[in-house]
Structures are given as structure tokens and as C-alpha cells.
């Protein structure tokens, strides 16, 4: 990517953030270090499609590809029109770039005949969302997921984005994977998975 293209993408990101700060979550794209860490946190050996929610300008998408994720496996879901134009230009077929809301992910994937996904990578600002929205996104992420599938999410700061009560309600567990200090602002990576026959949700953060 040329310096001009990078500058234009940064400008687009900042404009989207200024217009909808709670939906975009940050004034600048994720760093390459964060993208690599997100890819590392995902279990790439699980077969099936990998869905990225809230891809922005594609910083994490690019790192997923460079980490060995086949383009045919990637499904990007984004609802911001300015980001969608950038993503479709940067990542042509066979990567699938879908217009949609993460709260309606299962139906969106069904319409595209995508099932048994291996995992979800999310850059959505969960901490800025309501409790009901977080629940809806987590439900939709795990609904089309294969048994061993995981959701990898990052947040700005060390706070886990989902309460214990929500995790228990959805039978999920969460583990803090790492903190990427080189990102601006620093980001913490979390891995969500189904709780396997546990009376209480296991937490490690």
C-alpha cells in the first residue's frame, strides 16, 4: 500500500470516528502488531470460514492473510459504507465482503450459504455498547460456529468487555490472551469460547 493510500484510509477512518465515535470506537486503524496478535490468538487449525466483524479499513484483515489464513476462508462483515468501499477495493474475490450488522450475523451468513464457521475476529467496540447489544452480538457470533469455534475480540484497556452474568447466561468463558502495548491506544485481546459442561463460567482475566 502506498503512503498516499494509507493517508487516505487514515483520513477516512478519522472522519467515520468523528461522525459516529461510539460505533467506530477509535480515531485510527488498528496497528499491524495488533493484527498479528489477533491472528495468533485464533485457532487457525479449526476448519471452516473465518468471519471478521467491523473490519474498518482492513488492518487486521491484512494481518490474517499474512499469517496464513487462505483468502477463500475470509468473510468480512461491515456496515459503514465508507469502509465497505475501501475493503472491496483492497480485498477482491475470493474474500467475501458483506454488508450487514453483527446483531444479524447468523441470518446474513445463512443467506450467503455460509455455515460451520471456524471462528470470529471482532474489532467492534463492545465496551461502548449496551448490555443487550453485547448479548445479541455474542449470540449471533456463536450461533453459526462449529463446536470448537472461538471469538477473538480486542478492547482498548484491560477491562473485559462482557460481565460475568452475561457469560454465564450464554454459557461462555473468556480468557485474556495478551496486551499489545505498541497499538495506539494499547489493546487487550480476549478469547471467548463455549463453556464445556461447566456449572459456572470459567474466567481468567
Number of domains: 1
Radius of gyration: 16 Å
Judged by helices, strands and strand pairing, the structural class is alpha/beta
Strand order of the largest sheet: 3-2-1-4-5-7-6-8
> What CATH architecture would you give?
3-Layer(aba) Sandwich
Mass-distribution shape = globular
Question: Largest sheet, described in full?
Answer: 8 strands, mixed
Through-space gap between termini: 37 Å
* Poorly predicted sequence stretches spanning 5 or more consecutive residues: 21-28, 198-205
Question: CATH homologous superfamily?
Answer: Vaccinia Virus protein VP39
Describe, in plain words, how this protein is organized in 3D.
It is a single chain. With 205 residues, the chain is an alpha/beta fold. The chain is 37% helix and 24% strand. It has one domain: Vaccinia Virus protein VP39 (Rossmann fold), CATH 3.40.50. Strands 3-2-1-4-5-7-6-8 form an eight-stranded mixed beta sheet, with helices on both faces. Helix 3 packs across helix 4. The longest helix has 17 residues. It is globular, with a radius of gyration of 16 Å. The termini are far apart. The C terminus is likely disordered.
Reconstruct the topology from this structure.
Blueprint: H1 3-19, H2 21-24, H3 32-41, E1 50-53, H4 59-66, E2 74-78, H5 81-90, E3 96-99, H6 105-111, E4 117-122, H7 131-142, E5 145-156, H8 164-170, E6 172-180, E7 187-194, E8 203-204
Helix pairs in contact: 3-4
Entry summary:
With 205 residues, this protein is of the alpha/beta class.
Give me some keywords for this one.
disordered C terminus; 37% helix; 8 strands; 24% strand; 205 residues; Rossmann fold; single chain; alpha/beta; eight-stranded mixed sheet; 8 helices
Amino acid at each position: 500500500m502506498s503512503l498516499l493510500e494509507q493517508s487516505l484510509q487514515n483520513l477516512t477512518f478519522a472522519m467515520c470516528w468523528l461522525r459516529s465515535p461510539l460505533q467506530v470506537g477509535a480515531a485510527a486503524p488498528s496497528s499491524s502488531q495488533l493484527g498479528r496478535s489477533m491472528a495468533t490468538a485464533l485457532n487457525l487449525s479449526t476448519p471452516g470460514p473465518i468471519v471478521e466483524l467491523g473490519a474498518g479499513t482492513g488492518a487486521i484483515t491484512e494481518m490474517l492473510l499474512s499469517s496464513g489464513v487462505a483468502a477463500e476462508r475470509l468473510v468480512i462483515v461491515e456496515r459503514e459504507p465508507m469502509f465497505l468501499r475501501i475493503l472491496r477495493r483492497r480485498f477482491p474475490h475470493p474474500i467475501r465482503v458483506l454488508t450487514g450488522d453483527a446483531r444479524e450475523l447468523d441470518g446474513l451468513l445463512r443467506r450467503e450459504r455460509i455455515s460451520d464457521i471456524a471462528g470470529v475476529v471482532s474489532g467492534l467496540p463492545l465496551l461502548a455498547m449496551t448490555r443487550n447489544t453485547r448479548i445479541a452480538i455474542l449470540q449471533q457470533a456463536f450461533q453459526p460456529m462449529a463446536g470448537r469455534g472461538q471469538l477473538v475480540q480486542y478492547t482498548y484497556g484491560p477491562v473485559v468487555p462482557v460481565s460475568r452474568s452475561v457469560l454465564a447466561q450464554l454459557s461462555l468463558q473468556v480468557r485474556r490472551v495478551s496486551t499489545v502495548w505498541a497499538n495506539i491506544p494499547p489493546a487487550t485481546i480476549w478469547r471467548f469460547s463455549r463453556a464445556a459442561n461447566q456449572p459456572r463460567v470459567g474466567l481468567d482475566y
